[in-house]
C-alpha cells in the first residue's frame, strides 16, 4: 500500500517561527562572542533586520489564526441543528474545500487496488481449501452421514463492500457466504414475518422456513415422508405453530463445529503460507476466520485479515437465507417475541447478488466521471469521523444505525428515485453529491423515520435486478431503521449534522491543495463510471 505524507499547517508555521527565533538567538550569541574584535559604529545593531523578520512572521501567523477563528464563528448563514440551512453549500464554496475532500479521499479513504487484489486472492485461496475440506469430511453431529445429512455445497460466495468496490481504508475484513446442501428428501417453504401484526417492527425483516416434502412423481404420502426425514428434523428443526421449521441456531451450531474439524484438516498444509484460527461467534454472530501472515512470508502485502464465514441456504435466483439474522435486527434475549414463534427459527435474507446486479446496472448507465461509489466511501468515512469522542456504547449504537448496509441502501434509493441515468453525479460535484446523501439520511432519521430495503417487497428494484423468488417479491417492505426508537434516531441525526458542520475542520489536518500533487489522479481520469473489479 502506498504511503502518503502530508504537512500539518498547525505545526508548520509555529515551527518556522521557532526556527527563525532560534536563528536570531544564535546570531546574537555569535555576535556577542565577537564583540571584542569588531564593535558596530555609532552603536548600530546589526541583528535588527533579522529580528524584525522573525517578529513579522510571528505576527503574520497570529493574524492568520485570528482570521480563521473569526471566519468560522461569525460568518453569516451559519447552519443550525435541525434546520434545512444545515445543508447550505457554504462549505463547498469555501476555497479549497473540494480539494480537501480529494486529499482526504486519497490519503485516508481510498484502498490501494494492488493490496486489495492480493488480499481478495489470498482470502479466496484459504477459504476455498477450507470449504473443499469441509465438503470432503461429510457431516458430523446429530446425523453422521447418509441421505439426510447436512453438508457443504462445495463453493463459496464473496459478498460485501470489498467485492462491490466501496470498501475503505484497509482490506482487513471480508464476508463470505458458505452455501449448505440440504438432503434430497427435504425442501423448504420460506415465509416473511413482515405481515405479523403482533411482532415487534425490528423482527419483521426476518424469515422462517418450514419443512415440506419435495415434489415426487411417486406420490408418497405425507406420513411416510415425515417418518423418513425424522432424523434430520430432530437434529436441525424446531416446532413452530405445529410445523417443523429449520432452526438457524441449530444449523449455526453445526456449522461452527464442522468448520473447526475442517480447519484441523487443512491447518498443516497452510503453515508455510499463513497462520489461521477460527473464533466461534456463538449464537449471535457467524464464526470468524483469522488469517495472519507467516513469519517466512515475504510477500508485499503482509496483512492480518478477518473473514466472516456465514452459513447460507439457497432459496433460488441467487437469494440465500443466512444465520443468524444480520443487523440491524436485534439478537440475544427476545422479550417481545410472541409465544407461538421460536427465536431460534429466525433467518435473515441475503440479496447480495441482486444488489451487485443493481450496482452493475447503474454502472452501465452512469455518465462519464460518475462518483457514486466515491460518495459512498466518503459517507462511510464521515460516519467514522463522527464516532470519535463517543463512549463505547454510544459508538456501537451509532455504527448500527449508520451501518455500511444502511448507507449503501441510502445511495441506491437516491439513485433509483432520480431515474437513469442520474444527472449531477460528476466528479466536479462531489461535495454537492455528498451533501445530498447526508440530507437524505437526515430526512430518513427525522422526518420519514423509515429507510426501506431496496430489493425486498413490491416496491423493490425487482425490475432492475431480474427475477426474484416469489416469497421476496410478495414480502412486506422491510424498514432498516425499525429496530431503533425515535430518541436513538434523533441522536444519530444530531450527531450526523454536527459532523457535517465540522467537516472543514475535520478534514483540514489531512492536507490541502499544495499536497495533492503527490497523489495519483482521480479515478474518473483512469476509468469511466465505476472502477473495474480487481482480480
From TrEMBL:
Query: Where is it localised?
Result: Membrane
Which coarse location class applies to the principal site listed for this UniProt protein? membrane
Q: Which domain of life is it from?
A: Eukaryota
Occurrences of domain Mab-21-like HhH/H2TH-like (ranges):
372-449
Keyword Amino-acid biosynthesis in the entry? The reply is no
Q: Does the keyword Oxidoreductase apply?
A: no
Q: What keywords tag this UniProt record?
A: Membrane, Signal, Transmembrane, Transmembrane helix
Topology in the lipid bilayer is annotated as: Single-pass type I membrane protein
The residue ranges crossing the membrane are 48-64
Pfam families noted in UniProt = Mab-21_C
Q: Which family does it belong to?
A: Belongs to the ITPRIP family.
Protein name per Swiss-Prot or TrEMBL: Inositol 1,4,5-trisphosphate receptor-interacting protein-like 2
User: Which organism was this protein described from?
Assistant: Galeopterus variegatus
Query: Quick one: which gene encodes this?
Result: ITPRIPL2
Amino acid at each position: 500500500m502506498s504511503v502518503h505524507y502530508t504537512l500539518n499547517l498547525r505545526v508548520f508555521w509555529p515551527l518556522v517561527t521557532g526556527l527563525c527565533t532560534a536563528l536570531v538567538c544564535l546570531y546574537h550569541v555569535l555576535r556577542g562572542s565577537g564583540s571584542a574584535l569588531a564593535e558596530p559604529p555609532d552603536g548600530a545593531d546589526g541583528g535588527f533586520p533579522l529580528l524584525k523578520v522573525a517578529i513579522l512572521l510571528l505576527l503574520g501567523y497570529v493574524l492568520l489564526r485570528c482570521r480563521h477563528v473569526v471566519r468560522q464563528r461569525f460568518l453569516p448563514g451559519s447552519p443550525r441543528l435541525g434546520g434545512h440551512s444545515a445543508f447550505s453549500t457554504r462549505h463547498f464554496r469555501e476555497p479549497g474545500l473540494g480539494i480537501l475532500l480529494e486529499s482526504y479521499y486519497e490519503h485516508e479513504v481510498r484502498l490501494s487496488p494492488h493490496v486489495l487484489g492480493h488480499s481478495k486472492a489470498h482470502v479466496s485461496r484459504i477459504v476455498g481449501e477450507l470449504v473443499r475440506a469441509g465438503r470432503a469430511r461429510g457431516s458430523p453431529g446429530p446425523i453422521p452421514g447418509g441421505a439426510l445429512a447436512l453438508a457443504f455445497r462445495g463453493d463459496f460466495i464473496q459478498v460485501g463492500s470489498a467485492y462491490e468496490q466501496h470498501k475503505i481504508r484497509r482490506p482487513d475484513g471480508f464476508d463470505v457466504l458458505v452455501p449448505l446442501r440440504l438432503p434430497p428428501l427435504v425442501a423448504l417453504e420460506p415465509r416473511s414475518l413482515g405481515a405479523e401484526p403482533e411482532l415487534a417492527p425490528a423482527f419483521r425483516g426476518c424469515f422462517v422456513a418450514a419443512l415440506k416434502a419435495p415434489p415426487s412423481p411417486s406420490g408418497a404420502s405425507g406420513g411416510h415422508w415425515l417418518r423418513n426425514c425424522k432424523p434430520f428434523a430432530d437434529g436441525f428443526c424446531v416446532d413452530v405453530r405445529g410445523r417443523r421449521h429449520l432452526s438457524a441456531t441449530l444449523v449455526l451450531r453445526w456449522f461452527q463445529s464442522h468448520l473447526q474439524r475442517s480447519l484441523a484438516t487443512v491447518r498443516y498444509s497452510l503453515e508455510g503460507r499463513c497462520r489461521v484460527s477460527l473464533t466461534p461467534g456463538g449464537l449471535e454472530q457467524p464464526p470468524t476466520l483469522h488469517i495472519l501472515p507467516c513469519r517466512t512470508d515475504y510477500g508485499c502485502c503482509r496483512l492480518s485479515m478477518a473473514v466472516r464465514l456465514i452459513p447460507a441456504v439457497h432459496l433460488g435466483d441467487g437469494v440465500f437465507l443466512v444465520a443468524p439474522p444480520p443487523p440491524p435486527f436485534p439478537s440475544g434475549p427476545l422479550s417481545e417475541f410472541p409465544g407461538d414463534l421460536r427465536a431460534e427459527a429466525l433467518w435473515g435474507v441475503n440479496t447480495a447478488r441482486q444488489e451487485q446486479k443493481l450496482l452493475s446496472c447503474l454502472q452501465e448507465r452512469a455518465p462519464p466521471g460518475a462518483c457514486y461509489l466515491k460518495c459512498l466511501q466518503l459517507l462511510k468515512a464521515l460516519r467514522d469521523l463522527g464516532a470519535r469522542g463517543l463512549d463505547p456504547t454510544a459508538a456501537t449504537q451509532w455504527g448500527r444505525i449508520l451501518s455500511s448496509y444502511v448507507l449503501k441502501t441510502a445511495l441506491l434509493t437516491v439513485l433509483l428515485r432520480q431515474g437513469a441515468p442520474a444527472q449531477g453525479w460528476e466528479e466536479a460535484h462531489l461535495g454537492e453529491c455528498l451533501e445530498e446523501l447526508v440530507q437524505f439520511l437526515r430526512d430518513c432519521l427525522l422526518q420519514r423515520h423509515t429507510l426501506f430495503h431496496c430489493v425486498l417487497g413490491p416496491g423493490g428494484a425487482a425490475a432492475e435486478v431480474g427475477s426474484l423468488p416469489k416469497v421476496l417479491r410478495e414480502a412486506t417492505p422491510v424498514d432498516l431503521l425499525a429496530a431503533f426508537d425515535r430518541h436513538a434516531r434523533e441522536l444519530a441525526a444530531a450527531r450526523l449534522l454536527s459532523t457535517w458542520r465540522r467537516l472543514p475542520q475535520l478534514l483540514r489536518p489531512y492536507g490541502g491543495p499544495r499536497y495533492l500533487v503527490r497523489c495519483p489522479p482521480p479515478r474518473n481520469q483512469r476509468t469511466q463510471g465505476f472502477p473495474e473489479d480487481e482480480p
